[in-house]
Design goal:
The protein is α/β, with parallel strands linked by helices. It has seven helices and nine strands; from the N terminus they run αβββαβαβαβαβαβαβ. It comes from Paraburkholderia nemoris.
Length: 323
């Protein structure tokens, strides 16, 4: 066997082992180091976050994998809890890995934020059973899925509260797609230190192969958003894109209206079309100059203590672009 063949075999074996470990629910990330170099400039560190899981056989404690990124210095730094989405194909959940969107994270760190990225149960490096199943498209249980996702984020906030570099009174939840939905769900529990939420294209139930832009039971999601909004005590930036193939703007506007009517406060921005499907815009490096100014304009006065609430508003903004 040639050296090249041996190397390919070793790489294939390592990937197979990672897949097996991820599905088994190991709390140890197993990406081969040569494929997953540590971002030393952001002091990247892999940590284990304990959380209490509630099941039919009672409560038990398990760990979820998270990654922290820090600016230089000792802090304390305001914290961003960054949440990943849910792949359309359930078999791809393990591919989330540790959700290392380094260019996006680097922008947050350059702004002076510490960032922690938890991998929720059933995904990537955390693995184990999937806790966020919504059930059937005809009658989905969004509230239950949100409640389960929120538990992972709440445990992450509690863990981060023990880190000396973190300003425990300045926590911002940021998430994309199912991660945006999870962030809204977690905010409804009013966790200690939370000051804002940034929701990038958040929701559940989208299926472009079925009806592009028209998710499952949008009226049920509106009720869920109202439920979240009724107990959310911080401002929320809702950032969506006109050509989102999962959640069309007209649908999102009904969700935002329900959120506001129930007492939630926030701002809805709908960007012009981005590429073929604007749903994943946040994860595209080329989109950073589009969403970053909105992010800064929203969070800076909140972090600085100059703004604690928003006048509810909705508008289209941004500039058309493509990846």
């Amino acid at each position: 066997m040639s050296n090249k063949t041996k190397a390919a075999a070793v790489r294939a074996l390592a990937q197979s082992l990672f897949t097996a470990i991820a599905f088994a629910g190991s709390a140890t990330p197993a990406w081969p180091s040569e494929l997953d170099p540590i971002a030393a400039d952001m002091h990247e560190t892999v940590v284990q976050v304990p959380m209490t899981e509630h099941g039919v056989f009672g409560e038990h404690t398990r760990d979820i994998v998270a990654t922290t990124y820090m600016p230089d210095g000792t802090g304390p730094f305001p914290l961003i809890v960054l949440s990943h989405g849910n792949p359309p194909n359930a078999r791809d959940r393990f591919k989330v890995g540790r959700y290392r969107k380094l260019e996006q994270i680097r922008e947050f760190v350059h702004l002076g934020f510490a960032v922690i990225v938890p991998i929720r149960r059933g995904y990537g490096a955390t693995g184990g059973s999937f806790a966020e199943d919504t059930g059937s498209c005809k009658n989905p249980d969004f509230e239950s899925a949100g409640r389960e996702a929120a538990q992972d984020l709440l445990a992450t906030i509690e863990f981060a509260d023990t880190l000396p570099q973190i300003d425990r009174n300045k926590v911002i939840l940021v998430g994309q797609s199912a991660g945006g939905f999870a962030s809204l769900a977690a905010a409804s529990y009013a966790p200690k230190g939370l000051i804002a939420v940034v929701n990038f294209s958040g929701g559940r139930g989208g299926d472009p192969s079925r009806h592009p832009g028209q998710p499952c039971a949008p009226e049920q999601m509106a009720k869920t958003m109202a439920h979240f909004g009724s107990t959310t005590q911080v401002p929320v930036l809702w950032h969506y894109v006109e050509n989102d193939q999962y959640f069309a703007p007209e649908v999102v506007k009904t969700w935002f209206s329900a959120f506001e009517s129930a007492g939630g406060h926030g701002e809805l921005i709908v960007e012009p079309p981005f590429g073929r499907d604007g749903h994943g815009m946040f994860a595209v490096d080329a989109s950073i100059p589009i969403w970053l100014p909105h992010f800064q304009q929203f969070v800076t006065p909140i972090v600085d203590g100059k703004q604690t609430a928003l006048v509810p508003s909705s508008h289209a903004d941004g500039a058309a672009a493509s990846p």
